[in-house]
Amino acid sequence: MKNPTRSLILMTGLAGLVAGRDLFAQPGATPPPMPQPAAARPVFVPPAMPPPVAQPSLDSLIKWDAERKDVTVTSGTPQAQFTFNLTNVSAEVVTINSATTSCGCTVASLPEQPWKLAPGKNGQISATMNLLGKSGTTVKTINVVSDKGSKMLYVQTTILPAAAPTQALTAMDRESNQKLAIADRQAVFKGDCARCHAQPALNKFGQPLYVAVCGVCHESEHRATMVSNLHAIPQETNAEFWKNWIAHGKPGTLMPAFSLADGGILSDEQITSLVSYLVATIPSKPAVQAIKPTASAN
Ligand code: HEC
Ligand code: HEC
Question: Which range marks the domain in which residue 229 is found?
Fold first, then answer.
């Protein structure tokens, strides 16, 4: 048990002694061994390269406006765009061969491939992140690989939740909104109104689209008296009925026209998806009539 410790001390002592002896012995008698290790060293540590990293970074050759770009968007935004500006601050051509991303959802593009960036020249690497199905904060990397080293860039998107459509409006807001809509029933799709009445429709179809653009008015907890209850329409409904109301609305009321042709915000595909959803969800006969057979069966 004591032996290892003791021999360690012994060896250390011996080494010190030997080293000491050598130091004192060399200068006088033997030729100095100094030049040999000194000559061998530069091979392993080139003096021109300060950090001894495995993959040389492009930082000493290329100046980047940033290595990380952040974008904040509102929910429903389909894509986020990023642009990195870079300048070749070295005296040699840097050839950038690729810019690969960490996810299929993000695409980075070079002005040309391979991209030869001459000394003193600048240019841009652009990237697009597809935000479909994403929420919160997403960070992806872009690995830029050149003939002289590589560089990791970061792109970050923060998706803010859509302005909650259920958020109660102040009575004053509501009154002035109604006034604007009476003057122009398409006002809901313009200016700040679009935040709650148009933007939530982006990329939506069927039920989610209904909730986003129709539900705001028709399913509101505080549904205004002039807004119809779509679950108790006093007439037979069918695909034509829904399509006409959605596409054209009703002039002289607060019901806007949603088709693009009528100055609305919904594509034909979106309108068709709403019609299918409504036909499947809302009985074609008025609720009052549907009760009759049940009552007589009793
Ligand atoms: C912050 C979101 C938001 C904004 C911005 C907004 N609205 Fe609304 N709007 C609603 C909600 C929610 C309802 C449903 C009623 C409620 O809950 O207060 C509604 C309902 C309506 C109605 C149906 C009548 C009613 O009062 O219920 C009309 C018309 C209307 N808005 C027009 C407008 C116009 C015009 C603008 C722009 C000047 C606008 N809205 C801006 C959220 C918004
Ligand atoms: C800005 C508020 C608003 C929005 C958004 C809205 N509506 Fe309306 N809608 C109304 C109002 C107000 C009426 C009543 C019109 C009238 O006075 O006849 C109405 C009437 C209707 C009617 C006729 C109901 C009946 O009693 O015959 C249908 C159908 C309808 N809306 C469907 C929709 C659908 C589907 C959407 C979504 C694409 C939608 N609305 C979006 C305000 C709105």
Answer: 171-281
Q: Is the CB of 95 under 6 A from ligand 1?
A: no
Do the beta carbons of residue 161 and residue 76 sit within 8 Å? no
What CATH number is given to the structural domain containing 259? 1.10.760
Q: Considering its fold, how many domains does the chain have in total?
A: 2
- Ligand 1 atom nearest the C-alpha of 174 is 26
Which two structure tokens, joined as six digits, stand for 253? 């009321």
**What is the spatial distance between Cα 11 and Cα 20, in angstroms, rounded to a whole number?**
14
Instruction: Check if 217 has its Cβ closer than 6 Å to any atom of ligand 2.
Output: yes
Over residues 176-221, the pLDDT tens digits come to 999 999 999 999 999 999 999 999 999 999 999 999 999 999 998 8
Q: Smallest Cα–Cα separation from 126: which of 139, 144, 114?
A: 144
Are 152 and 175 members of one domain?
A: no
User: What backbone torsions phi and psi does residue 131 show, to the nearest 5 degrees?
Assistant: -100, 5
> To the nearest whole percent, how much of the chain has pLDDT over 70?
75
CATH code of the domain covering residue 67: 2.60.40.10
Considering only CA atoms, which of 212, 83, 198, 73 is closest in space to residue 131? 73
CA of 135 to the centre of ligand 1 (A): 25
